[in-house]
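Throughout our pipeline, every protein is held as a single compact record rather than as scattered files. Nothing more is needed to write down the fold, since each code stands for a local backbone conformation. The record that follows is passed on verbatim for readers who wish to inspect the format.
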Amino acid sequence: MKNKVLVVDDEQSIVTLLQYNLEQAGFEVITAMDGLQGKQLAEKESPDIIVLDLMLPILDGMEVCKQLRQKNIMIPILMLTAKDDQLDKIIGLELGADDYMVKPFSPREVIARVKAILRRTQFQIGAALEKDESDGQIGIGKLTLHPEKYEAYFKGDLLELTLKEFELLLFLAQNKGRVLTRDQLLSAVWNYDFAGDTRIVDVHISHLREKIEEDTKKPIYIKTMRGLGYKLEDPKGE
């Protein structure tokens, strides 16, 4: 069965270019020319991945990403933009995008990124299906992770995490007590060199702390090791 890709871009030339190359690479492609239509197709068609432009009419790419994640629609998103702006990249990733590319780009690079994202997500889903539901549970203080379900709970309440937030939290938990550098976290969670942009790690760590720390200024779970990186600890007395 072919993987389905939803391409959302308001430039017909880019839509045509991506559709042709993705179909040549063996993907099924559906397209939208504005953010609202893209959001509606994502909800209706359940594509395997979305290639989403940032600058769109009606709803921009940021808003599309935000609304999908608010509905707990966790379809992987590769965000495209003509803006080579660091802030846009960070905001896009904060909202739950899985990857980010700046125009102009080569179709081959887009296809490579799409395949890489799909390999990660499908491997994770396949591995989860092979496990018993009670297998692999990780408990740290008041935090409980269920890798096979892609769920995390804090004080018994289900945490609303993006895919990347969950993967980052899981990797930290699997390496409890170990100091992990930002580059190690980039490599493990994002699975490729993100141009040395370690601020992406800091942004995601900050989001995790907001969800599992009583006081984000005095974290007891995710500790910053100055000059080194981060580590996840089991709080004393928990």
